[in-house]
UniProtKB/TrEMBL annotation:
Keyword list, A-Z: Glycoprotein, Signal
Family: Belongs to the multicopper oxidase family.
UniProt protein name: L-ascorbate oxidase homolog isoform X1
Signal peptide per UniProt: 1-22
Organism this protein belongs to: Populus euphratica
GO molecular-function term, one example from the UniProt record: copper ion binding
Domain Plastocyanin-like as annotated: residue spans: 32-146, 158-300, 395-522
Gene it is expressed from: LOC105142272
Entry annotated with the keyword Signal: yes
Record InterPro entries: Cu-oxidase-like_N, Cu-oxidase_2nd, Cu-oxidase_C, Cu-oxidase_fam, Cupredoxin, CuRO_2_AO-like
Record keyword Transmembrane present: no
Amino acid sequence: MAGVMFMVLLCLSAGAMLGVQGEDPYLFFTWNVTYGTLSPLGVPQQVILINDQFPGPNINSTSNNNIVINVFNNIDEPFLLTWSGIQQRKNSWQDGVLGTNCPILPGTNFTYHFQVKDQIGSYIYYPTTGMHRAAGGFGGLRINSRLLIPVPYADPEDDYTVVLNDWYTKSHTALQKLLDSGRSLARPDGVLINGKNAMGDGKDEPLFTMKPEKTYKYRICNAGLKNTLNFRIQGHTMKLVEMEGSHVVQNVYESLDVHVGQCFSVLVTANQAPKDYYMMASTRFNKQVLTAKGIIRYTNGKGPASPEFPEAPVGWAWSLNQFRSFRWNLTASAARPNPQGSYHYGSINITRTIKLVNSASREGGKLRYALNGVSHVDPETPLKIAEYYGVADKLFKYDTMQDSPQANIAHAKIVSQPNVLNLTFRNFVEIIFENHEKSMQSYHLDGYSFFAVAVEPGTWTPEKRKHYNLLDAVSRTTVQVFPKSWAAILLTFDNAGMWNIRSEMWERAYLGQQLYASVLSPARSLRDEYNIPDNTLLCGLVKDLPKPEPYSV
């Protein structure tokens, strides 16, 4: 019958159902967020579970799927999840950060509904409220290619998700109190691989199994709080094939530095003697190295893993050189049939340059982190909702932060206020992240992928553009900045919405090292941005206001 939409529901694991409609397929999930007690490092502690799982359930989707997740908040604090790397085209309403969404209050639920439009790749989700990320609530989110689109490698025997974390035995509330009292986080107590650390006593269950001579895909993501983690597998090399949504030139690595918030996909072939092998994740750039282990078992295995461990590299020059080896695969197709390299980003004129310098202040006993001297504070009403309801002027001013910081910004007084940049729709923008501090930085941009065209030591000047990779820089969502160094990214702001640019070092984001890019379509048209969803949670100034006129086509 014309105009009738049919739906078939099939039960899936992790509280999920699959719906098949006349449009792109739907995946339905019901998630119950609770506290639980686990001992990831041998000490009982409170963790955040999703459907009693730690890490949370793995979302297994395909390009253009619609994902519907009903999140029930059964912890005692307001809670939000973000889907890091999912571009939420025209739909920042689903981004799950405090600038776009009111948090889900205890004892209530909220249903996220978003489409993984024109994307493939390996991503993570995690909480954005308070220091919840330090307690759990994170997990893997994969987007498989559609069957019609060729992938530049043979189908693996199986596809595994590896979530890495630095980990604290203190509760998230204790860590939050520490930060609120003006202190910073000390080094972590350990490292976890999929929520565990193998003891090496012969009683460890394997995290993964491999059949001899078969090739497996491992999606490796760092969902931690502050430490770069070096990942390696005893006796095996890794062929890098994908990074945060882009197929890459397939170089082979003995180990990979995974900076906070980043995800890599590698192929590993079971071509060694049949026994157990350790996968390992070690902290980098710290005097004391902390390492987690997990077991990979050959199905015909005959013996324990060797006690001889491959060492992690030392120093960040090695890591910088590894970044320089990453290249976009120009001939492969990602979510669409056309090759990735058909988009010639290097020939587009830059219309705006924004240089962001991070700094820290302990003035008045309060610890704050800032970008260009502004430390972001989330108002009670999310910025995006205030903008939509026409009350933004009561909460924040646009462009209070300069595009280029003053010369002595590292020592300048920090101002704490909402930090919102007004970005012109469809402009091609250059963003420089400059790090004058001795610590690593890692930045993520919601709503987009960008071209990471340079990461270099020293300070940035316009002459440095001569050294940009304008041919095959990887299109990705997260970029690291080494101590006393800078990074440059290029992108077109063609996705209308309110988008978070944040430090992935979570204590820094929590204490203000983030901002929002407001990208408004002058047409106020549904072609550019969706209307506010009917189920949007309202809070603060807009709670009792009448709904604005919706956008039209």
